[in-house]
Write a structure and sequence with these properties.
The protein is built from 10 helices and 8 strands. It is an alpha/beta fold and about 240 residues long. It is globular. This is Aspartate/glutamate racemase family protein.
Amino acid sequence: MKVRGGRALYGASVGILMLEARFPRIPGDMGNATTWPFPVHYKVVRDASPERVVRQGAEGLLDAFIDAARALVTDGVDGITTNCGFLSLFQDELAAAVPVPVVTSSLMQVGMVDRLLGPGRRAGILTISGSTLTPLHLARAHVPEGTPVGSTEGGREFTRAILSNETEMDIELARQDNVEAALALQAAHPDLGAIVLECTNMGPYAADIAAATGLPVHSIIGFVSWFQSGLCPPRFPCRDNCVRF
């Protein structure tokens, strides 16, 4: 039997565009490879710091992200995602630039989650930076107008450590920041039926948030796992390349 090649790597169907960061990435974080039940392929976008992407609107970085996405495709991935929800700004441009599916942001789940809920219930967003999450970020991800937004921005550890790109982070304080912000969001919006975590670094705290609020919590981890389940390179049988859920 002959086998055709043509790619630099095999078995990693999802490529992840990474910010250039040094803060700790614990299990459950998108940037920790042990988080995933399938192989992934990372590509760091140089100079794309958390500060520049989240607080400065990723200004001047589009070409670098497109170049990195194209490099991932050349390497052999079958779909691309990113490790920052604020990159919804680049969804249309990245999807147009490469021949594989692209999901830039966990925010893209919000409309779908709304449709899962009963009448009078809606999803809310928990973000790392409510002050810089703009209507354009939400519009590019097709988030319904009026969606409630809560933030860890007023906390003690999570937002500060990540956006300042610290090399150390108190995980317990970060967990508390996430839980407290989620509870505040729930208290402010009694019609909340679910929470979507904008920040890809919130994954480790999703179970704690769900336990504290009693609500379904949707993170980038579940979203990309669903995304990956539909990726099947036509060159090879699915049983050899794809994890099915």
